[in-house]
Design brief:
alpha/beta, Lyase, Ornithine Decarboxylase, Chain A, domain 1, TIM Barrel, 2 domains, nine-stranded mixed sheet
Length: 420
């Protein structure tokens, strides 16, 4: 796939639009997303899976902007939701309920009821206690909930521990050794219908071997469940395909699909995949403006107007994200820390990074910010959240306005009888 943020005449563009022109209208910090890159990433995966029945359910938690979701839904994507709020956003963006799968370890009764009312494709159940709650909610509504268990195969995905979800120490899913007993309990209930099996071992997977190991265990489970009389029609293989932030070499969509099809493709099941990061990460960038520079005996700091509240991945995960100037690079290069205004020593976008010389007012682009950028942002330090922009070709639109100071206190009250 071509770079959605090319440099032309020395200046960075978003597809066909100069980023400086977007900033004139939207200000900074601002997240910019390429509609073409979103569609190309989705198309690459669904094309690779074309020879089996499948549904690509976009993992909405990676980027929940309605315009981003709508772009993918219009392309044919389903949705993987993990909360009532994500379900609400999916439906608001026009997602087909029959293509929505609902995961998450802590579904509440109101969330379960909203999903039942919507008529979703599948509940991925993460505990036997949750099974009984879904059955009770469905009974109260006089309906039957389509379910599968998320099984934990105890496979190490070899990724950051915060985004590893398939180990026995994880809060996610049920141990695969307990699955047969759990499915037997589900079969005895009147208001759930067993239709699938789910397995998701983690995010930013860079090696295909852990996925293959997990799928082999899932295949054995499906065969055992069918012998016990369960009608398994769906295998949800999760998501987690890695992306390149620096020098990583993640599996291609073709290799991922070849692995999935080679292990479970002959079981006559619909294959559900839940990509998030692999669709959105490199379809987005964060633009920030240089405010100041300062030096001490040990460091040279470039202070910008984006901070850890806008992009927490570098601080939370010690993640590397490439940074480059929006305008023509200046010589000489300097080793600098790119830091924000937040009152935390952990507020940085990059440390000890060799970058072209910066001057106040310059714009920098933080690459690979389309996934878990705005979605994980906050109002910490009383900072309004950034604007979001969607670009297609030579057109762009602000798809989320920058928050105002009034937005920071919206919904709050000051009861005089308690505070006076």
């Amino acid at each position: 796939m071509s770079d959605p943020f090319p440099r032309r005449g020395g200046h960075l563009h978003a597809e066909g639009v100069p980023i400086a022109r977007i900033v004139e209208q939207a200000g900074t910090p601002v997240f910019i997303y390429s509609a073409t890159a979103l569609c190309e990433a989705y198309d690459a995966l669904t094309t690779a899976l074309a020879r089996v029945r499948h549904t690509v359910c976009y993992s909405i938690k990676s980027n929940m902007n309605l315009a981003v979701v709508r772009t993918l839904v219009a392309r044919g994507a389903g949705i993987d939701a993990t909360s009532g709020g994500e379900l609400f956003r999916a439906l608001r963006a026009g997602a087909d309920p029959s293509k929505i799968v609902y995961s998450g370890v802590g579904k509440t009764d109101p969330e379960i009821n909203r999903a039942l009312d919507a008529g979703i494709k599948l509940f991925n159940i993460e505990s036997r206690a949750e099974l009984r709650r879904i059955d009770a909610c469905a009974e109260a509504k006089g309906c039957v909930a389509p379910i599968g268990f998320r099984v934990n195969p105890d496979v190490d995905p070899r990724t950051h521990p915060y985004i590893s979800t398939g180990l026995r120490t994880s809060k996610f899913g049920i141990p695969i050794a307990e699955a047969v007993e759990a499915y037997a309990e589900a079969k005895a209930l009147d208001h759930v219908c067993v239709v699938g099996v789910d397995c998701h071992i983690g995010s930013q997977i860079l090696s295909i071997e852990p996925l293959a190991d997990a799928l082999a265990r899932v295949r054995s489970l499906v065969e055992e469940l069918r012998k016990a009389g369960h009608r398994i029609e769906i295998i949800d293989v999760g998501g987690g395909i890695g992306v390149r932030y620096q020098k990583e070499e993640p599996p291609s969509p073709a290799l991922y699909a070849e692995t999935v099809i080679g292990i479970v493709g002959d079981l006559d099941c619909e294959i559900v995949v839940e990509p998030g990061r692999s669709i959105t990460a490199n379809a987005g960038i964060l633009i920030t403006r240089v405010l100041y520079q300062k030096s001490n005996e040990a460091k040279h700091f470039v202070i910008v107007d984006a901070a850890m509240n806008d992009l927490i991945r570098p601080s939370l995960y010690q993640a590397y994200q490439r940074i480059e100037p929006v305008g023509p690079p200046r010589a000489p290069e300097q080793t600098v820390d790119i830091v924000g205004p937040v009152c935390e020593s952990g507020d940085f976008l990059a440390r000890e990074r060799l970058l072209p010389r910066a001057e106040p007012g310059d714009l920098f682009a933080v690459r690979s910010a389309g996934a878990y950028g705005f979605a994980m942002s906050s109002n910490y330090n009383g900072r309004p959240r950034a604007a979001e922009v969607l670009v297609r070709g030579e057109r762009f639109a602000v798809v989320r306005k920058r928050e105002t100071l009034e937005d920071l206190v919206r919904g709050e009250s000051v009861p005089e009888e308690l505070t006076g």
